[in-house]
Amino acid sequence: MDIQSCVTIINEWDIVAARQLGRNVAKELGFGTVDQARITTAISELARNIYLYAGKGQICIDKLYDGGKAGLRINAVDSGPGIKEIRQVMEDGFSTSGGLGAGLPGVKRLMDEFEIDSSPGQGTQIKATKWLR
Amino acid sequence: MNKTISNYIQAHKQDILDQWIDRTKEEADERVIRLVSDRVFNSTSKEFIDLIISNFKGTNEEYTERLTDFAEKVVRLGWPLTFVTKGLHTFNLIVFEGMQKEGLVNAENQMDMVYEFDRWSTPMNNEIVSVYSSTWERTVSLQKIALQELSAPLIPVFEGITVMPLVGTIDTERAKQIMENLLKGAVKHRSEVVLIDITGVPVVDTMVAHHIIQAADAVRLIGAKCMLVGIRPEIAQTIVNLGIDLNQFTTKNNLKKGIEAALELTNKKIVSMEGAK
Which residues form the STAS domain (chain B) (predicted)? Predict the structure, then answer.
């Protein structure tokens, strides 16, 4: 049984809304404060990427129930310019916008599972999951 | 306004009001019903109907004024806009059906009457929507100003030591202000050490970290030292996970420790008075 709720990212304040949604869901599922902070930070990174690079997109938060395990999945979807070199953006310190370049590799480290699907002109879809232990 | 319609409404005012309240309550969102008491609901409804009626009684100015008042009240009560527009629609329906029953609307003049209603209600609808949205816009912009006021104050605590407490989300706009206030204030107060307290920042992502690092670099350029305090344990973990390098910073977990370190850096000491009780 999966339950989903979404936030459309258009301006900077939507990032806060997405974060808030993620934090609430994480709290509901029983994640501790550290994992809550990890999840909200990951959402913040993904939402900001949408805002900065694609301009518009969506962050969806799914509750996952797999056997006895519960988890939370962040689904970040946009139809922006896409990513040319996925390997490059997953390297620490790579940034096209003069930022720290820790966003995507950071999200990967913050979460348990990380999946990225993108090609130039096709937009980007990122799925990041955290399991409740 | 067509004479027949206005005469009908004025003659049946109470009747229309009762019907309108019944129907609206049936259709209204639960949110609205839960939010307001019956008394408020009835008095506001009455005001709404009076407002509609005053549309063709008083002067134009009177009407606009009342409409603004009403919109503001509805915004304050937290009623959704659809409630008001639907309310207008229901009102029209009740009047139209009532007039049909009395034979004032018949097969012959039906089309004319529909147009007449439309001519009357469309401008009113537009007016309500525009007043409503401008009331909201004003509320939002006022809040924005209020938010800016508590944005990034710089507080001198000792000679040479200043603190900037940050509370709430940091967006690009605020990051700019933080940088400006920090530099301006550090020069003005002749700070040797500037402490940035992030106890109240809910999320430190790469963007926030990037802005803080830039601010600290700039502070260093004007000859002061920057310290980051108020790093909660969970924030410390996410910073490590993200792989953000804060090595060039002195960091402390709370403001107290930060101030102690800052005093040490500026060769100061706080001593208890001897003989004090």
Answer: 151-262
